[in-house]
Amino acid sequence: MASEEEPPKGSEEKPEPLSESTDADQPVDEDGKFSSGGSIEFQDAATTKPRPPTPAEVRARNKYEKKQKELEEARLAAEAKRRHQKRVLMGAAAAVGVVGVVAGLGYWALSEPTVTAQCVQEDPNGQPVIVPDSYCTGHTEGLNGFFFYGGHQYHYYYGSSGSVGSRPIGGSTTAPKGANITTKSGSSISRGGLGGSSPGKSSGS
């Protein structure tokens, strides 16, 4: 049998290593396409238009805007209501204050005592005698509350009673302070309190 021939040394062929190729190593043409067929799109911020919103995005935005509008309307309504209530409270307080003042004045006026004054003249014995009111009313008061009319002196008796020609029953020659003083004929001699007039400066009723 023929012997197998051994191959010559150094003649073994070694396989060549495979080189790894990636897209980064592949050349890119002018259109931005790789030679393998892939492509990259570059966007220009100056010319690129945003995509239109989707229907879901439009609905969400409309819902948000509607909610914001409702909240703003509620806020404005609450503020207007608060201002109205404040005005009502201020008006009520002012009205209560005015009513209180009027009621106080009315009570004060009603609570003032009313005193009747009678015109008197001293008789020869120095005793007072009631004379008609016209002898005192309408005349200027002199010293010590005396009126001078027809050469005679007259003055008032306060809080007394009795008829013309008789002596006054009770009363005093001193006018009470803070009282409404009138004559039997209705003439006002003095008004107590605010706007009061002094006794002797009488006015017709």
Tell me what the structure shows.
- The chain has 205 residues and is of the alpha+beta class.
- Among the domains are: 53-111; 113-190, no CATH class.
- Helix content is 28%, strand content 14%.
- Strands 1, 2, 3, 4, 5 and 6 form a 6-stranded mixed beta sheet that branches.
- The longest helix has 57 residues, at 55-111.
- The relative contact order is 0.09.
- Residues 193-198 and 200-205 have low confidence and may be disordered.
Number of strands: 6
- Would you identify the regions where 5 or more consecutive residues have pLDDT less than 50? 193-198, 200-205
- Please report which band the strand proportion falls in: under 5%, 5-15%, 15-25%, 25-35%, 35-45% or over 45%: 5-15%
Separation of the first and last Cα atoms: 175 Å
Shape: rod-shaped
Number of helices: 1
Secondary structure class reads alpha+beta
Instruction: Please state the oligomeric state of the protein chains shown.
Output: single chain
Along the chain, the helix and strand elements come as: HEEEEEE
Helix content: 25-40%
Report the radius of gyration as a whole number of Å. 60 Å
Mean pLDDT: 74
Q: Largest beta sheet, briefly?
A: 6 strands, mixed
Task: Throw out a few tags for this protein.
single chain, 205 residues, 1 helix, 28% helix, transmembrane, membrane, Transmembrane protein, transmembrane helix
